[in-house]
Every structure is written in C-alpha cells, then in structure tokens.
What does this fold into?
Amino acid sequence: MKKRMGIRGAIAAAAALLLLSAGTVAHASDVTVTAVVDATAPNGAVILEPGESTEVTVNLAVTGNQVGTATFKVYTKWTLTAGGFVGSEPTQRTVSPQSGGTTSSYTVSAVVEVAEGVAPQAYILTVGVFDIVNSNQTGAKLAAGDKATYTVTVPEVAPPTDSTPPSIEPVLDPSAPDGSNDWYKSDVSLSWTVSDPDSSVTTTGCEPTIITVDQFATDYTCTATSAGGTASQTVTIKRDGTAPQIEWVGGPSEGAEYYFGSVPAEPTCEATDATSGIDGDGCVVSGYSAAVGPHELAATATDLAGNKAGQTVDYEVLAWTLKGFYQPVDLGTLNVVKSGSTVPLKFEVFAGETEFTDVSAIDTFKVGVIDCGSLTGVPTDDIEQYSTGATVLRYDTTGGQFIQNWQTPKGKAGSCYQVKLVTDDGSALTANFRLK
It folds into this structure.
C-alpha cells in the first residue's frame, strides 16, 4: 500500500476534550454509576486512491466512576472495500478502578487503506470500542460512549496519458538463420511481442507464422496502434532446406567395367538449385582414375544456403590378359640357356576378346641379375631353340604373337637372370634363366 503520512498531526490537533457522563456523581448509596469510553479522534478527512493508505491516531478517554478492572478493544486497521470499511488487527486496553472525577486517556496508532477496485466517492469511517469486559458483577461498570468519524474520499482517477506507440519485438525460432548467407535451412517459427503499458493496442499482421517450405526473401510486417500512435516492425525470412540437384556429364557408368585403355574420359557434373542457387565452387568431381582397379567417382555441390548434395559412381578398370611366355621358354621353371645365345620371348596381349598387335601396348622389357641360390629346388628346363633375328620387339603376324628376342650376356656362365615384360596397364610376365 502507498502511504500518505501528513495526516497524523492534523488528526491529533483535532482531538476534542472528553466530557463526563451527565449527572454521574459517585455516592456510596448509588447502586451503579457508569464510566464511559469515548473516541474523540480521528477527526477530519483524507483523499486516498485505490492502493494507497495513511496512518491515523485514535484518542480514547475513560471518564466517570469505575469500581472494578475493565478491558476494551479497538481496531488498528481499517480497509475500505467495495462493501465498506472492514476493521482488523484489534488491540486491547485495560482500565483500572477510578473515581467519578477521574479521566484516563489512551492512544492507539492505526492505518486506513483503500483496496483496489473501490468506486470513487466519499466514505465515512466510524471509530469506536467493542468487546468491553468488566471484572465486577455489581457496582459502577465501563460502557461504550461516543464514536468518532473520519471521511475517506476516493477520487476519480484520470486514465494515464500515452505519448508513445506500442513496442514490437519479433520472436524467431531458430533465433538466427541456421544456414549460410542469412538463409534458414529448417522450419522457421515467427511470433510477435506487442506491448503498451499506457493504453490498449490493436494489431495487424502480427499473427504467429510457421514457414515450412522453401521461399525467396519474404517480408513479414507487424503493425500495432495505441493511443500513443502506430508502430511497425518488419522481418525478412528466406528459407532453403533443399539440397541441390546433380547431373553427371559423361564419364563411366555406375557399376560398369572397362578394360584398361578403354575407360571413358573424366566426367563433369552440373548442379542446379531452385531457391538460393549454387555457390561459387559449382559442381565438383573427384576420384577419377583410369588405372587398373575399382574406383569411385564423387560429385558434390553446395547451395548458397549451405545445403550439400553428393552422388557417387562406382566402376572398375580391368587388367589386360597376358598369355605366354610360349615355347621355348617355360614359366614356373628355371630355364637353362647357353651364355651369349638369343632367346625368343613369345607372348600375346588381350583386352577381353580384343588382341593387341601394336608394340605400343608394351611398356618395358627389363632384365636383371638374381641370386641363383634363391632358385634352389626350382625345376630346370634346357632351352635348345634359339633365335638369330634382331632383338627389337615386333608382332609376328604369321604366328599371331609378339616376339622379343633377348640376347643373353656372353661369358656369364653360372649366372642367373630374371626377364620381366610389363604392358601399359601394369600387367607383367616374368621368366627366370640360368646361363651355362
């Protein structure tokens, strides 16, 4: 409760002198001579708005003859409600025996308050005592006397003035864009907090909204009007929760097998995005290889909202098939050959059913010295058929095979060599030799 403290002095100054009860003179022959307790204050008036309070001083006086001890009560709080004054928090005072010419004074501090919702007008508070209890059964007893009054006026309260328009605050969830470049990728919830403490408000366009589909930048405006004017707030929301679309351009097919040398060229890819568009990197391809073995191509793209898309293509590059070396050379054995002689190395190369006849398919022809001890236990085979032709690699159309004549080193009897032929795809034929 709000308090008004200036009334106390005015009330105390207005207290009236108490009067003896008319004709009350103490005589021994009297059966009953009654003393009275009068309330002479509060006197006066105060203006209190709902929710306010003030302090008052209640002055009480007992005059007249009092044989025994007596008590009385008085309220210390009065609350003005829509139904009138309600007293509470009583306090008790004790009156000792006194003669008829005696006056006893009592002072009580009290509070008067006005509850919310009380209509504006003047109200009269009547203050008196109650619950008088006399200890003596006969003789002069204490009784209630005069009551005091106090006027409480509840004024008309002028409505507050409003000089400012309503406050408008958008409430977004997520509170900030969860994508790149101020794009939202998830659903967006938009509501508005509109307030004006001084007057009522009407709104337009302030309904809660949930954006669940992709959209370009869209403005949402909340307008609110009060006695203080009109205000508006605009929020721009753009949403893209859809990843880009990717299309392959050229390249190997999913699950396909290609022989080495027949693999399609490295592909490219194209990416499109209907809302935010593709970022500056565009569509990127990685993982391409034409080497023998399994491979996985990956195409990736990211849109301006940060949505990523990816596609893969698995394919395999098959090795060529090498056949040979044919007679007179045997694979899996230690071929024994005369030092200085020329040995014909005969073989064929296929990519599936297709036979190679161009010597460009052959990458290298290597001869190296090896430790004969490492070949212990390997069966031997003497070569008796030698070649006298040139040592240049050639394709023999008559025999339908490649021929690489190898002239063995001279004067190296007892030495061991390994001959290795490697084709462009990395496939190889290997034969071991011991010179005699």
Observations:
- The chain has four domains: 2-154, 167-239, 245-318, 321-435.
- Residues 4-34 have pLDDT under 50 and may be disordered.
- The helical segments are 7-13.
